[in-house]
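Revision sheet: structure tokens.
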Amino acid sequence: MKKQLLATVSALTLVVPGLALAEDPIRIGVLVALEGAFAAGGSDGVRNVELALAQRDNMAGGRPVEIVVAATDTTPDTVVRQARRLIDQDEVDFIIGPLSGGEGIAMRDFAKTVPEMTFINGIAGSQEMTWVDPADNFFRFNLDGAQWGQGSGRFAVDERGWTTVASVAADYAFGYTNFLGFAVDFCSAGGDIVERYWVPLGSADFGGVIAQLPDDVDAIYLGLGGTDAINFLNQMQQAGAEFNIIGGTIMADATVLAARGRVTDALEGTITSGAFSNDNPDPAWQDYVTAYREAFPEDERFEYPSLFGVGYYVSTLAALEALDRVDGDLSNGQAAFMEMLATMTLETPLGPVTLNENRQATGSVFVNEVIRNDDGTLANVFRARVDDVNQTLGMDPDAFRAMGAPSRTTPDCDALAGR
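Predicted:
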């Protein structure tokens, strides 16, 4: 009878909520856009989650780790629906994602309805996610889109002499945010943005906008990515238009540089700023690139990890590192796990990352230029670096807040001149 009682108690222990045996797997939900303009980047995100896990033998905190991938299409409704499915049906322990800016704002709001679950951003870059009424359980280990926009504007003025631009950017949260970072940098350096054009995400026809572009500006700021960027550049070539280009962060990512045909002519010389440089000599970055190339066949990956891939890799590193440091403890509303994420210093291929009081990363931004290799392919090469870029772009928080949220009309270039 005593043996039977002990067996019953043991069996009950297995199903008590919040308790887990060492061998119980940790299930991570991965929200990633696998449809639409960023599908190729989303696939690279999944590859990099798998790489981060493989490097730790699919273990963290002394427990095996499993992932459940939920495909999104960059729309807020879809990402929330998929997040609910991951929680309610797939019973994941926490979520990494999403990819796109509009999705990120939706996930910030959704996270507040599930305060006992941790959400780690994938690579979504909308500023509002961690700046406007942030969720206590939402963590972002990548810089936001405004931070990524820093560097290229001042470089264009100081190093290229480009002082007037017209802008064409995607008409959604990340497009506004990334443009704001560029504009603050460019206008503060003495540049002038003479016209602003906004186009829907996923546009196929850019002919009308291209026809309106002024021909007396020094450059075009192009805040598009994925197939949108490729389509715009192809149509610009077909129209016979020629401009110097300052790209948004995702405008000359690996997904765009892999394009073929005349579009590559338009890409040469493009200046961008963002999370990394392909030729960064830091051993941690070089080791990561080598591991990425060795992990996947050449015809199934990019020459270098994409921005999307790097973001999901770093986010997965953060999750696994925090799990190790708390011995896989996800009890008590994941309190120890969340505290570790908020306070630890994470070593990444991009350098150390720490989070501020909004659970938002501060770090370095790299300025790159697109060049053509001897074999005809395109590559980004390092041109400059800006360190310690914080969430308010070096501005006083009150002045930054007074500037207004990223939008079609923010920031006011005249108000920033000579800052």
